[in-house]
Fold each of these.
Amino acid sequence: MLRVRPAKKIAGTVRVPGDKSISHRAVMFGALAEGVTTIEGFLPGADCLSTISCFRRMGIEIEQQGDKVTVQGKGWYGLQEPMQHLDVGNSGTTIRLMSGILATQPFHTVMEGDESIAKRPMRRVIGPLRQMGAKIDGRKDGEFTPLSIRGGKLQSMAYQSPVASAQVKSAILLAGLQAEGVTSVTEPHLSRDHTERMMQAFGVSVVRDGLTVSVEGGQKLTGRAISVPGDISSAAFLIAAVMVVPGSSLLIENVGINPSRTGIIDVVKAMGGSLELQNERIVNEEPVADLLVTHSQLHGIEISGDIIPRLIDEIPVIAVMATQAIGQTVIRDAEELKVKETDRIATVVSQLSKFGGRVTPTDDGMIIEGQTALTGAVIDSMGDHRIGMAMAIAGLAATGETGIENEEAINVSFPGFEELLKNISQ
Ligand SMILES: O=C(O)C1=C[C@@H](OP(=O)(O)O)[C@@H](O)[C@H](O)C1
Ligand SMILES: C=C(OP(=O)(O)O)C(=O)O
C-alpha cells in the first residue's frame, strides 16, 4: 500500500518522466523506419514497455536501458509474423495504434491485454480499418479483445470520426501510409497530434486542413534521433499538488506543451492558479517549456467542449483540485472517461467520496463541490494509474493518513511517482 501523509508544503525543482504518447510513437515509428532510431527521455513505464515487447516479438531489435532506447528499424515490411499472441498489457494506445500497423502487414497476429483492456471498445478502430479492407475479428464482432488481424493490401479512405480520439486517428493514418491514394481523418474536435508531428519528424508529408488530416500512401519513414519531453499528464499531478497545499511552489522542467495537450494549463489559470511558462523551445517538432507553479486559491469553473480532448487524462486530478476550489466545478462532454482504464466518472466519484469529497456523477462528466475538507482514507486505484495518483494528491490535502491500494498500477505511466512525491513534500 502506498502511504501518503498531509503535506505542509510542496517545493523544489523537478522533472517528470517522458511523455507516454510520444514514447509509444517513437518506438513504433522507429521499428517501421529504415535505419536506426535513438530515443532519449523515453518513458520506461509499463505501457511503453508493452509496445517494445510487441515489436521485439515481431523481430525488431530494441535495446532499452532506463530512458535510453535504440531501435534497429527494418522498414515498414521488415516485421515478422509473431509466433505467439502479442500482449499489450494495460495499454490502449499500444493495441489501437498497432491495429493500424498490423492491418497493413502480410501476416496474421492476435493481440490481447489485461482485464481492463478486455473491457475497452475496439470497434472504433476496427470498423474503419475493416472498411479499408483489413480482416479483423474479436469478441462481439471485433468490439473486444483478443483481436485477430489478418492484414494486407488496403484501400485509402476519408474517415469522419464520431469521437475525438488520437488513437483512432493514428491507427487510420498509419494504415493509410500503406494504402493506395490519400487517406484522411476528420475529427469532431482536435485530439492530440503527436502522430502527425512525429510522422513529419520521420520524413512523411502530412497535410492538415482544420479538423482534417491526410497522408498519401507509399511514403517511407526514416530513422532518426528523438528526444522525448516530460509528460504534461504526469506534471498535472504535481501542478495539482501545488494548488491543493497552501504555501507551495514548484519548478517542473522540460515539460511538453503541445497545444493539443495543454488543457490542464488553461484550466488551472482559469481557476485562478499561478502557472508561468519559462524557457519555451521546440524539440523534434514538439513545443517544450519549464513550468513555474505557485499555490493560489482556486475557484470553481465549467469545463466542457473543445477543451475536453486536450485534458481528458487529467480529469481525475482536476476533480481533486476542484474539491479545494471555492464554489462548484462542472465537467461536461467527457463521456470518453467511461472507456478508459476504468470508468473514470465512477471511480473518481467512488474513491474521492471516501475522503469526504462531494462529487456527483453525470452522464457526461461530474459536478464537484468546493471547498471541501478531506479526511485521509484507504482508497483503491482500481488498477487505474491515474486514479491511484489523483487520490495520492488528495491525500496531501487531507487530514490524517491516506493509503492507496493496488498502487503498482501507477507504474503504467509514472515510475518513481512515490519517491518524487516524497522528495517535494515537506
Ligand atoms: O494517442 C494517445 O497516445 C492517447 C490518446 C488518448 O486516448 P483516446 O485516443 O482514446 O482519446 C489518451 O486518453 C491516451 O492516454 C493516450
Ligand atoms: C487512457 C490512458 O491510456 P491508454 O488509452 O493508452 O491505455 C491514460 O494513460 O490515461
Note: Residues 118 and 145 are 5 Å apart (CA to CA).
Amino acid sequence: MQPIIAVSRLSKKYDSGFEALKGIDLEIARGEIFALLGPNGAGKTTLISIICGIVNASDGAVTVGGHDIVRDYRAARSMIGLVPQELTTDQFESVFDTVSFTRGLFGKAPNPTYIEKILKDLSLYDKRDNKLRELSGGMKRRVLIAKALSHEPDILFLDEPTAGVDVSLRKDMWEVIRKLRESGVTIILTTHYIEEAEEMADRIGIISQGRLLLVERKADLMRKLGVKQLKLEVREPLAFVPESLATYNLELNDEGRTLVYTFDRQGERTRITALLADLQQAGIRVRDLDTHQSSLEDIFVSLVKEQQ
Ligand SMILES: Nc1ncnc2c1ncn2[C@@H]1O[C@H](COP(=O)(O)OP(=O)(O)OP(=O)(O)O)[C@@H](O)[C@H]1O
C-alpha cells in the first residue's frame, strides 16, 4: 500500500550552517502510530516542521497522501493536524469558538456538529463554553488536539504530547491517542519518554544528530536488540570467576557477590541449565537469582551512545 507520508533524502542546513537533518528516508503507513525518539537537538522538530510546511528543506522530497509538500502545499497541509507543545491562542476565547476558528483557517465550511463530536470524543463537551484560561493543564492539551483535528485531517502530529504532565494525565492522553487511531487517524508523535514509545507505538524511529539510526516495528526492535541477563547472587563472595566458567563470559559485580550472565533470548540454547550445573561443579552456591530483559531505554541509550 502507498505510504501516507514518504520522506526521501531529506536534509536541512539552517542559515547558521548547522546541519539539522542529514539524508532522512522514512515512510509512514496509513493508520499506524509512529514514535520518533531522540535526545534534545536531534532534529525531531525540524523533521516535523518540514513535513508540515513550516520550515523549508534544503534537499530531498516529502509527499503527504501523494501530494508534494512544496508543489502541492495546500493539499498536503490540509491532510495534517499539528499539535504543538504550547497553547498560544487567546485565553479569553471559549473552547468551542477557538476550535471552530481553527477549522475556518483551513478554509473549511463551519460544521458545528463535527466540532461537537470532537469535543465529545476528547471529553471537552462539558467545557465547550468555558474560556481557555479557566481550563486545567490537561484540558488545555485536549483543546490543542481538538484544534488540530478541527479540519478533519488524516494525519496527526503530536510534539511531546505529555511533556511535563503528571502520570495519571499521561495515561489519559495515551487513551485519547489510542482512540484517535481507532477512528482511522495516522499518528506521529515525538517523545523524550521512552515509556511512552514503548506503550503506544507500532513502529519506532530513533533519531540522533540529524540521522535516523533505525526504524523498526517495536516488537522486532525489542526482540532483536534486547538481551536478557541472569543475575546470580552467590553465598560466598568470589575473588574471581573460576577458569572452568570462562566460556560463559560472566561478569563479577557487587564485590564478588553477584555473577551476571548475558544471553540472547533468540538464541537456540540459552545454556542456563549448563551454567547452573557448572556452577555447582565449581562449588559455587547460589543464594538467589533474577532475570532482566533490556528495555527500550537500554537499547536507546546504547544506540545513541554508540553514535557519539
Ligand atoms: N532556526 C534555526 N537555526 C539554526 N539552528 C537551528 C534552528 N532551529 C533548530 N536548530 C538546531 O537544529 C538542531 C535540531 O533542532 P530540533 O529542534 O529539530 O531538535 P529536537 O530533536 O526537536 O530537539 P528537542 O527534543 O530539544 O525539541 C538543534 O541543534 C538546534 O539548535
Note: The chain has two domains: 5-223, 226-294.
Amino acid sequence: MQIYKVGGAVRDRLLGRPVTEVDWLVVGATPEEMQASGFRPVGADFPVFLHPQTGEEYALARTERKSGRGYGGFTFHASPDVTLEEDLQRRDLTINAIAEDDQGQLIDPYGGQRDLRARLLRHVSPAFAEDPLRVLRVARFAARYAETGFRIADETLELMRRLARSGELSALTAERSWKEISRALMEPRPEVFIQVLQNCDALAELFPELAATFAKGNAAGGHLLGTLRQCAEHDQPLPVRWACLLLGCTTSADSQQPRLAAIDTLNQRCKAPRDCQELAMLLGRYHDDAFNAKKLHADALLDMLQHFDIYRRPERFEQFVAACEMHALAGAPGELLFEGDYLHGAASAARAVPVKPLLDQGFKGADLGKALSAARLDALRIYCREYSQ
Ligand SMILES: Nc1ccn([C@@H]2O[C@H](COP(=O)(O)OP(=O)(O)OP(=O)(O)O)[C@@H](O)[C@H]2O)c(=O)n1
C-alpha cells in the first residue's frame, strides 16, 4: 500500500499557511488490511479509518458516482485498484487535488500548483457536480483566500450556476450546509461568500429572503456586504455575524412582523445553533429601537433590557450592541448614528439597582420581581433625564 498526504494540508503548506489537520489517502489496500494494521474504521458508510496512534484520518482511494438526488444518493467504489489519479479526479478543486508522498514529492496531475500560483479556484472535472455542497465550499474558499487575490475560474462559476439553477442545493441537509455557512462567516472576507452565492444564483436557493434584498437594488445589498466586512474587521463572533446577515433579509422600511418571520424561517431552515438564532431574532426586533434609543421612554428601554435578560446574559446584550455598531459602521459617514455608549449606560444603570434592600423589606417571588422592575424603571428615568441635560 502507498500512503499520501492530500487535500487542505498540502494546499495550505504550499500557500505558506498554518496546517491544522492532515488527511491521508491510502492506495492499494483493502479495509481488512487496514484493520489488520491497527486502523479503526470510522463508520460503516465510508472507507475511512483512524490511525491507532495519531487519530488522523486515512481514507481508502475511491471513485464516486452519484446515484440519486441529495447527499444520500452516493455510491462509491473503493478498491485496491483505484489509482491515485482516479481518486484525485473526483475531488472538488485542483488546489485540493495535490498529493504528497512520504519523500515529500508532489503528485499533481490536474494543475493544482499552477492554479495556486495563478490564484485560481478551479474545479478538477465534471465530477464536481456530484456533490452540490461544493458550491458552498468554493464560495467559502473564496471568502478565505480573497485577501491573497484568489478568484473563481469562469468555467467553475458557470458550473456552480448550473448546479444552483438545477435545484440540487435544496437537497442538501441543513447540517452539512450550516457547517459551510458558519465556517464561511468566520473567514476573513465573509461578504465574499455571500457575493459569490449571489453571482452564481445560489443565494436565491439557499437564502431567498436575502436574494430579495439584493434584488431591491444595490443600496441594501451593498450595506449588508459592508456590515459583514466590518464584522470580520472587528473580529466579531459567529452569533454577531449571523444576526447581521439575517438583518439583511429585509430593509428597515419593512414592518417588524415580516422581518421577524423571515429571520425565524432562515433560523429554522438552517438549523442555526441557539445563540445565533436568539441574537438574530433580538436584533430583528430591537434594531430600530437601538438606533432611536435616545428617543425611547424609560419603560421602553426597560422592556428592551429585560427582554435581553441583561442580568443573567450580559454577553448577549454586548453582542447586540456590537451588531448594531457593525451595521452603523457600514453606512456612509454620518448616515447612521448609533450611540452604543448610551445603551451600555442604560444597562449599567438598570444593573446597578441593588436587590438587597428589597429582600430586607420582605419582598419575595413575583412581588420581588415587580418591585425590582419598578426600581429599575426609576433608575432608568433618572438616567434618561440626566443624559438629556
Ligand atoms: N465536498 C467535498 C469535500 C472534500 N473534498 C476533498 O477532500 C479534501 C478534504 O476535505 P476537508 O477536510 O473538508 O477540507 P480541506 O480541503 O482540508 O479544507 P479546510 O481547510 O476547509 O478544512 C478536500 O481538500 C478535497 O480534496 C471534496 O473534494 N469535496
Note: The two ends are 80 Å apart (CA to CA).
Amino acid sequence: MSGETWLLLGVVILLAWAYSRWKHSFWSSRGVATPPFIPFLGHLHKTAMLRKRYAFDMDAYYRYGGSKFCGLYSFHKPCLLVGDPELLKQMFVKDFDCFSGKKPLKLTKHDKVISDTLVLKTGEEWKKLRAIMSPTFSSGKMKGMFPLVCQKADDLVSFCLKEARTKPVIDMKHNFSRFTLDTIASCAFGLECNSLGDEDSDFSKKVDKFFKLTTASTLRKIFVSIAPRIAGALNMQFSSPTTGFFKELALKTIAARREGSKRGDFLDLLLETQSQGEDDGGSGKRASKSKEVLDDETIVSQCVLFILAGYGTTASALSYAAFLLAKHPDTQQRLRQEIVELIEKHGDVTYQGIMEAKFLDACIMESLRLYPISVYLERMCERNYRIPGTDITIPPGTVVSCPVWTMHRDPKYWPEPEEFRPERFLPENKADIPNLAHMPFGIGPRNCIAQRFALMETKIVLSKLLLASDLRLAPGCENVTVSFGFGSHSPKAVELILQPLKDE
Ligand code: HEM
C-alpha cells in the first residue's frame, strides 16, 4: 500500500474512533455512571451472552449505581439498567403506556407463526391479543384444566416410582421436561403424546429439534437478525423449520374440534373466544375485533407459544424446586405434612387445596427467588421519557432492563440471600418484602400471562411427588450447576434418589 493509502486508512480509523467516543458520551454527558465499555461494541460483549450477563448485571448494580440506575451501551445505542423497585414500578407499571414494547426480534415473512405469538406482538396488536387471551388464564378456566394436568402429574409420579425400582438415581430434570411436554401436548394441541414412556414420540422429537441449536441454525439466526429482508427473499426463517409440524398439528386439531370433540383445554378456550366474537354478530363491533385477531392462524401461533414460553420455564422451575427440597429434608417434611393435612380436609389433591397451601406456595416462590427463570426483564421506551426525580430524558428506542437475578439476591431485601428459606413468603412475613423486589413472573401489564397455569402445574406435581416419595440428593450431586443458554437457564442436572413412601 502506498503512503497515501495508509494515511487515508489512518484518518478513517481515527474518525470512526472519534464517532464512537462521541456516541459513547451519551451517559457521561448526563452525569450517569456506566461500567467500563469498549469502543464500538459498548457493553455488548458482556450482555449478549446470558452466561456473562448475570455477572455483569451484578457488577453494574453494586459498583456503578445500578441498584438505582446506570447507563449501558449496546453498540452505540444507550440502554438503561434499573434496579430500584420504586423506579421500576413507576416505569414498568405506572408509565406502562411508554414502556409497553420489547426489543424487536428481526424476523422474515416466513416466521409468521412465531411473529404472531403474544410474546412478540407490540402496540395495539399486543393490547388486543392480550385482552382476548387473558380470560383463558382466569382461575375459573384453570379449574377446568386442573384434571388434565393432574392426569399428566399422575403419569409422571408412576413413571418415577417405576424407575426408582430399577435405578438408584433418577434424572428428574429429564422427567420434568417430559412431563411438561406431555402437558403442553395435551393442553395446547389436544394430543396424548406420552413422551415420558415413549422416548421415540414424534411430538417430543420435534420439540427437541425445535430448540436444538446447531452451528448452521445459529448462523442462520444471526444472518436473519442482520439482514431480515435478504434472508426472507432467500426463503430463510429465524425460527426452526420444525415450526411447520406444530402448525399442521394445531390446524388438524382445530378442524377436529369443529367436528365437536371438546376437552376443555387451552385450544378449546381460544376457539371459544373466536365463536364468542362471531355470536356477537348483532352488535358487530366485538365480532369484527375478535375475528380480526383470532383467526385460525393466530390461534395456532398461541399453541406454539406454549412450547416457546412454557416448556423450558416450567421444567426448570420444577427441577430447581425439587433439588432445593431434596437438599432441605426438614422443609420437605414440613411441606409434605401440609399436603397430607389438605388431603385429609379435601379428600384428594384438589384445586381448592393447592390454592390454600401456603407453605407450598412459599417453597415455590423461594425457589423462584433463588433461581428466577428470567435473569433480567426488558422493555423498550416508546417516546421521550424523563426519568422520574431527574432531569435526564431517554429517547424512544432505549431499552430499559431490570436485573432480576441480582435483585433477588440483594441482602438489602433478603437477609442471608443465598439461604433457601420459604418462610420469607409465608403470609405473616410477606409484608417485609418490598414491592417489586421479587418478580419471577415479571412486572406490570406485560407480566407472564400464564402465571396461574404455571403455578398450578408446579403445585400439582410437587404435591403428588411428595405424597408418593421422599426426595434425596444423589451422592456427589449436593450442588446445582446452572447452565446458561441463549435466553434462559436450567440446572445442568437434577439427579435424585426417590424413596417410595407407600407400599405399591
Ligand atoms: C414457572 C414457569 C414460568 C415462569 C417462571 C415464567 C416467567 C415469565 C416471565 C419472567 C415473563 C416476562 C414478563 C415480563 O417481561 O414482565 C413471562 C412472559 C410470558 N410468559 Fe411466562 N413463565 C412461565 C410459564 C409460562 C407458561 C406455561 C406459558 C404458557 C403459555 C407462559 C407464557 C408467557 C407469555 C405469553 C409471556 C409474554 C406475555 C406478554 O408479552 O404479554 N409462561 N413469563
Note: The first strand starts at residue 69 and ends at 74.
